[in-house]
Amino acid sequence: MNQAILFPDREWWDESANAICFPALVNGFQILCAIDGESLIRRFGKDKEVIESFRQHRWDLEEEAEAAIKAEKEDAQGWIWLS
C-alpha cells in the first residue's frame, strides 16, 4: 500500500482522553492519532510537560504512527493509539 502520510503541527492535550492528540493526513483524509500522558512519561521521563515532551520527540512518534497507519491498526473509532 503506497500512502502519502503528512503530520501537520497541530497537537493538543485532550483532557477527557488524558492524551496528546495529533492529526495525520492520509491521501487527503484526516486520521486522529494519540498517545496517553502516562505512556509519554514512561518513555521520556517527567521532567517536562507532556505537550513539550511530545514536541521534543515528535519525529519518532510520527514515525511510529505512520507505521501503525500503514499496518491499519485503527481502533473502533478510527483512531491510531500509540502505547
UniProtKB/TrEMBL annotation:
The name on file for this protein is DUF1488 domain-containing protein
SUPFAM superfamilies from the xrefs?
Answer: Shew3726-like (SSF160272)
Source organism: Erwinia aeris
Q: Which domain of life is it from?
A: Bacteria
Stored InterPro entries = DUF1488 (IPR009962), Shew3726-like_sf (IPR036692)
Alphabetized Pfam families for the sequence: DUF1488 (PF07369)
